[in-house]
Specification:
31% helix, 5-stranded mixed β-barrel, 12 helices, 454 residues, binds iron/sulfur cluster, 22% strand
């Protein structure tokens, strides 16, 4: 378990957080509510009176990891409450671990709290019981990220029905948070020392569709609940704002000028998933690949420094060798900066499982290796182009003489790093912005020196 230690009441909860950034935000919210209600958050199984495991259930390997984590908590502690995406499949959890105390699904914060109350009844305190206790009213709550960056979740659920994905069946249709609520949270994070906001959701570009782009007021100005207005509002805070999980809709074009104007990081995390129109149709994703290439070119004309990160699935059921070659050709043409790829793996309950002509495992793995090899050359060349340039970076850590930082092109955890050779000498600290003269590169990271004024 790795957690911020919070002390005081004698009722001790351990917490294991697995899964994606969206699950991490759920964990932060539950931990904050526990803290507000006076529970101690502890670091070890031995110290805990009960352990909450926030699970992921997206792909088979995540299910295995989650079941293993529950098993470990059962063996080490024995009192375990399970929440998160795998909680949508209680039979599977109970079959493996019949002794768990309670199982709740994702975003079901109240049920997690009820299970904790049952295991560790709240203590009556005549001085605080009349105070309204709500995590939302608290400052910025518990964050599982370093102090200088934070995930900002703008919505839950998704209106798409990509055939390989079961998130809509686990998390439901899109529910957007009111824009003033999101902007207020961002404001509190900024006041708490956050320098970089990572906007997350299942589909960031659909923000506000469900509430018909309702207008709300923040700092005396009206904002529509919509991606562009959100970016404009966030730009008022003077932070780095990075957009993740942007679905390739045409209206993504609207935010590129904000990147060119420096209001938004010139960075788009936009999962294209494939490039063959037929495979995209089978995936139930937008399939006009020529238009996608044209749009990428247009984005680069408007914001030449834009970094485009994407993810792809290879070996989707029915994918032919020719269709896979189309995907490689797309990589050559699109020249994306950062790319993640997965060999298709069936997810329990996904519509794609019923598709004919599954690709044999060895073919999937062979295609994945070819795909990664092709992209590695592109990423390496793109990073080499940066040698000699000066990059604005945000320091994440100082390690001996080195400072480990990220440029505008690097999201935490998933992208590369900038190693600053004279970090100690320059007196750099985590959370500090610094200009770095780039002196070297490899296929993933950059190397350079902090520019110190004489
Ligand atoms: S857009 Fe993302 S979350 Fe929504 S169905 Fe498709 S893959 Fe799943």
């Amino acid at each position: 378990m790795s957690l911020p230690e919070v002390s005081s009441s004698g009722r001790k909860v351990g917490f294991v957080s697995l899964g994606c950034p969206k699950a991490l935000v759920d964990s932060e919210r539950i931990l904050t509510q526990l803290k507000v209600e006076g529970y101690d958050i502890v670091q070890t199984y031995d110290d805990a009176d009960v352990v909450v495991v926030n699970t992921c259930g997206f792909i088979d390997s995540a299910v295995t990891e989650s079941l293993d984590a529950i098993g470990e908590a059962m063996a080490e502690n024995g009192k375990v409450i399970v929440t998160g995406c795998l909680g949508k499949r209680p039979e599977q959890i109970r079959a493996a671990h019949p002794g768990v105390l309670a199982i709740t699904g994702p975003q079901d914060y109240q049920s997690v709290m009820s299970a904790v109350y049952k295991a560790l009844p709240p203590q009556h305190n005549p001085f605080t019981d009349l105070v309204l206790k709500r995590a939302d009213d608290n400052d910025i709550g518990i964050k599982l990220t370093p102090k200088h960056y934070a995930y900002l979740k703008i919505s839950e659920g998704c209106n798409h029905r990509c055939s390989f994905c079961i998130i809509p069946s686990m998390r439901g249709d899109l529910v957007s948070r009111p824009i003033d609520d999101v902007l207020r949270e961002a404001e509190k994070l900024a006041m708490g020392g956050v320098k970089e906001l990572l906007v997350i959701s299942q589909d960031t570009s659909a923000y506000g569709v469900d509430v018909k782009y309702a207008e709300r007021s923040w700092r005396g100005k009206q904002y529509q609940t919509r991606m562009k207005a959100l970016c404009e509002g966030l730009s008022e805070l003077g932070l780095w704002t990075r957009l993740h999980y942007v679905y390739p809709y045409p209206h993504v074009d609207d935010i590129i000028p904000l990147m060119a104007d420096g209001k938004l990081l010139p960075y788009l995390d936009i999962p294209f998933q494939h490039a063959s129109p037929r495979v995209l149709k089978l995936m139930k994703r937008p399939g006009a690949v020529d238009k996608t290439l044209e749009r990428i070119q247009r984005w680069r004309d408007i914001a030449p420094d834009i970094t485009i990160r994407s993810t792809f699935i290879v070996g989707f059921p029915g994918e032919t060798e020719a269709e896979f070659e189309e995907l490689l050709d797309f990589l050559d043409e699109a020249q994306l900066d950062r790319v993640g790829a997965f060999a298709y793996s069936p997810v329990d309950g996904a519509a794609a499982n019923a598709l004919p002509d599954p690709v044999p495992e060895e073919v999937k793995q062979e295609r994945l290796a070819r795909f990664m090899e092709r992209q590695a050359e592109i990423s390496e060349a793109k990073l080499a182009d940066k040698v000699g340039s000066v990059q604005r970076c945000l320091v994440d850590a100082v390690d001996g003489d080195l400072a480990i930082a990220r440029s505008m092109a690097d999201a935490p955890e998933i992208d590369g790093l900038v190693q600053i050779q004279n970090g100690l000498e320059a007196g750099l600290r985590p959370g500090q912005f610094v200009d770095v003269q780039i002196m070297g590169s490899d296929d993933h990271d950059l190397y350079g020196e902090a520019m110190i004024d004489d």
